[in-house]
Amino acid sequence: MNPSSNSKKQSFLQLLSNSLFFDKSKTKFSSSTEIIHIKKTKKFEKMNEELHSYENLLETNFKISKTSKLSSSDMITRESSQAFKKEKFKNISLNFIKERSNLKSEWKSKYLALTTQMKVLEDELETRMKELEATNAKLGAKKNELDLGARNNELAARIEELEASNTELDYQKKEIEASYANINIRNQELEALNKEITEQTKETESSNAELTIRTKELEVSNTKIDNQKKELEASDYKLAEQIKELEAFNIKLTSQIKESEVSNVQLNAQKKGIDDLTAELEASNSQKKKTKTSNSELAAYKNDLKVSNAEMNTEIKDSDAKFSEITLKKDESENKLMQDIEYPLKSSSHINIESHHDRDRV
Fold this sequence. Notes:
Keywords: Coiled coil. By secondary structure, the protein is an all-alpha fold. It has two domains: 3-136; 215-361.
């Protein structure tokens, strides 16, 4: 045997395995037959492993002998060991072939027996199936009869339930119809109420439009009043300045009046002294001329003082008249401002009262 040919041709063990094992998909065994088959298979697998190990050993030896140069004695020893191994392998192969042929014949006989038994079982099964079909037909007829009776009872009970349900539905239908009648009446009332609300809404909208217009007018009036108020404030400021000036002028006039009064007191004192002197001068003719001259001078001075006092009184009267005029203008402007402020407030309060009355009517 040439081990180098194993790589190109199918191995001897593979040929043995292919010839020993049947197609498992085509063969059906019982449980006991399967157990025997498993045991035999394990045995042959073990033998296959041993043969495979010997084959590998021969191939290894052949490669070693081919690569190494051995002596003649070593070659003889190796050839004798190889011959022994070949003989042993041959004996194992023959035993394996005999075992295979025995198993093959045994399996064929068992296969024929199983095939015959399977045919008998199939015939029995077919007969049993026919009997079962006949029994099923009888049972089906009885079942249909029983089902029809039970179905009729169920239908009768269902009919009674439906009749009771129909009675209840009729009662509910009457209640619903009565409820619909009440709902229709309520809908009519709601429609009438909606009409009233619509009319009131229109009235409210028109009133709101009037109020809006009036509000705009009031806003314009308020703007005017604000402008007038600003003008009055400016006028008040000017009047206050003028009043301050008049007060300063009055203070000046008062001081002048006081000075005039002091001067009048002095003049009265001088007049008294003059009168005394006049009395003394009347007693004395020599001094009478002097006294007349002095009296005329004093009279002229007195007239001058009277003119000065008259002018001062005129100025005081003029300042009092101006002050009264300014005070009158101030009072008039304040009264006008108060009237302008009070009129929009009265108008807005009157409008608010009317809007409240309109809301109460709605």
